[in-house]
Amino acid sequence: MMRVPRALALVLGCCVGAGAAAQPAVPPFSQMTVGGPIEHWRPMRPAPKAADTRYSLVADGGAPVLRAEADNAMSALTYTVRVDTRRFPLLRWRWKIAAPVAGADMTSKAGDDYAARVYVLFDYPRARLSLSTRLGMAVAESVYRQSIPTAALNYVWDNRQPVGTIRANAYTDRARMLVVRSGSAGQGQWHTETRDLRADFRAAFGEEAPDVVGLALATDTDNTKGRALAWFGDIEFLPASGPSSP
User: Fold this and answer.
1) Which of 27, 184, 213, 230 is placed for a possible disulfide with 40 were both Cys, Cβ 3.0 to 4.6 Å?
2) Distance of alpha carbon 83 from alpha carbon 91, whole angstroms
3) Distances 122 to 14, 81, 139, 201 between C-alpha atoms, Å
4) What is the rounded CA–CA span in Å between residue 171 and residue 188?
5) What is the largest distance, in Å, between two alpha-carbon atoms of the chain?
């Protein structure tokens, strides 16, 4: 089955070159209504023949959060936002999983599943890519008939790789996987993460980070045919001198 590489297809709905916002704002799930629509986030289905991950707003800890349930499924939610990473280099979010995806293996396409992912898409100039990379992207865009992101960081809760692991996505080296949590340690508990996007981009790609142009959240199990359950709290972009994590 021909399928869109998920690390590439998640750019849909996150348009490169979108107009700059005065302040980076991501719609907070905590201000939405339990059982209501997930406002401003758009669904994305990078594997058309896979079932959709089920996303819903539920109460947890006295506030609405996003619940994601995948049963041999893959789909994501995307949000378009432009962020100057020089002014707002920090990304903060909360997440929780029921358990890692037991059969996942980030080193292979067949194992490219995660209990929870947070994608950050960047406006990397295509002209700075190598000729071979540009040609490869042009071929992929012709095949899949959609735009492909030129750079993405993918923060994941993996099942086996050590925390701090950085490696290319199994589908494309223009998306780099960063393991923030690993294995069952801390499952069933909320964790607040704060990442320095500029430092992470430099570690992953070896150069300075351009603007952010989009976010995506996903829980997926379509390759391993398993099940996964995760929850996501509010996501924020912060200046370097922003408030410390709780």
Assistant:
1) 27
2) 11
3) 10, 10, 21, 10
4) 30
5) 52
Cβ 178 vs Cβ 204: under 8 Å: yes
Q: How far out from the chain centre does Cα 134 lie? A: 23
Residue type, 225: K
**pLDDT tens, N- to C-terminus, the chain (246 residues):** 334 444 444 443 344 334 444 567 899 999 999 999 999 999 988 777 789 999 999 999 889 999 999 999 999 999 999 999 999 999 999 999 999 999 999 999 999 999 999 999 998 555 555 555 555 555 454 444 445 567 899 999 999 999 999 999 988 787 899 999 999 999 999 999 999 999 999 999 999 999 999 999 999 999 999 999 999 999 999 998 755 444
Question: Between the CA of residue 221 and those of 35, 69, 152, 184, what are the distances in Å?
Answer: 24, 10, 21, 17
Mapped onto helix, strand or coil, the DSSP state of residue 224 is coil
Q: Which amino acid is at 35?
A: G
Q: How far apart are CA 107 and CA 83, in angstroms?
A: 30
